[in-house]
Amino acid sequence: MKIFSGWHRFIFGLLLLFILIHMYSVMDMYKNSKMEVPHKQLNKKLDHLILGPAAGKGLSNRLQCEGTKALNRTHASNSGLSLDESIAFVTVFTIYNSSLNNVNDKSSSTVVGNASYNKVDRSMAVLNAFINFIQVAMPQSKLFIVTDPVSDLSVHRNRVSLYPIDGEYSRDKLMLQRIRSYIIFLETKLQKLHQKPRNITHYIFTDSDIAVVDDLGHIFSDHPNFDLALTFRNNKAQPLNSGFIAVRGTPDSILRAKLFLQEVLKIYSSKYLKASRMLGDQLALAWVVKSKPHFDASRFAKPQAFSEDISGTSVLFLPCALYNWTPPEGAGQFHGMPLDVKVVHFKGSRKRLMLESWNFFSSSTDIEDMLCLILGSGRTKYDF
Ligand SMILES: *[C@@H]1O[C@H](CO)[C@@H](O)[C@H](O)[C@H]1NC(C)=O
Ligand SMILES: *[C@@H]1O[C@H](CO)[C@@H](O)[C@H](O)[C@H]1NC(C)=O
Ligand SMILES: *[C@@H]1O[C@H](CO)[C@@H](O)[C@H](O)[C@H]1NC(C)=O
Ligand SMILES: *[C@@H]1O[C@H](CO)[C@@H](O)[C@H](O)[C@H]1NC(C)=O
């Protein structure tokens, strides 16, 4: 009897296990059929776009889409700048052909549209898309590409110039070097202004994996008193993103912005050198900002611009929701895309989407439809 009930238990257990496994896979199938982005694919990097639903459906201040057709028209901003003011973008970018041992290695090539890219081509394609977007949204602006003097970079585009600055641009030092290069860049511009006063050029320092989709001149005309602007989001540990920093082009503001960045560099070097190579500058930025006595960090919870004097530098805080919008990966809080978004950031593994977006825009020339493509496709990790 004892043996029998042991058997019974065993068979019963087996049956239960079988039922559970079956139930799980049915549930999984059900889940997958309901979700536009199947669970398994979230961790796999895809080599083609997945157009999912556009988040923010029914919210009156969010872009509404039907597939890649936008139901809302956004209005382009006026720059509001006077005739003697202009804007220059500044990005740090290096490329070393020696890092490419096997140019013809097909396994490392990636296809987007009808073009195929190796590792070096991929970086160059992102840089070119970055330039393209700027030249559409702000055709009057200039662009400086700050680069390692020994970099193999060559770019031949109108209004774009290389700006070599000595330094250590290896991958694990790049974020530290970037702040150093920004400081040197501002120092040089300041010296030139002192030698010979000229028309005002405001500077916007950005990552090169962003798409500027509207004129940004209004930042300087709507907020006439800031020296340096940063973008913030509602994230306790990392409220500030370093991928977008605007600096007013007057000698006083350039000087104060430089002093602020020098403080950030000091904190980065003394406190966060060991932080993951992508995070140190953002942690240092947040440390410097929060070191101001009585700084009210709860303002980061609301996507509304505000200013604050931080050790003598007037800092304007702009919401990432508009000036550094990133589609969140996977699940998570996501309320769609604000109608007046200005800058889209293709962080991490979204760079394929940046190129696909540019290709889409070149054939449709419709920014809003392109934003629908980005909104619907931005949750997936891509391979680029
Ligand atoms: C955006 O479009 C939707 C659908 O046409 C409409 O209901 C909504 O009011 C529009 N929002 C704005 C701010 O125009
Ligand atoms: C400087 O600004 C004036 C207008 O105030 C404009 O006529 C002139 O072309 C500008 N110079 C340069 C080099 O942009
Ligand atoms: C495909 O190639 C043709 C010819 O080279 C080019 O004109 C076209 O823009 C390309 N299409 C895409 C989507 O890249
Ligand atoms: C490095 O590669 C780029 C892009 O492929 C090319 O334009 C450049 O001429 C190359 N530079 C050298 C020094 O080979």
From TrEMBL:
Gene3D superfamilies in the record: Spore Coat Polysaccharide Biosynthesis Protein SpsA, Chain A
The keyword Transmembrane helix is assigned to this record: yes
Transmembrane segments: 6-26
Keywords recorded for this protein, A-Z: Membrane, Transmembrane, Transmembrane helix
Domain of life: Eukaryota
Name of the protein in question: Nucleotide-diphospho-sugar transferase
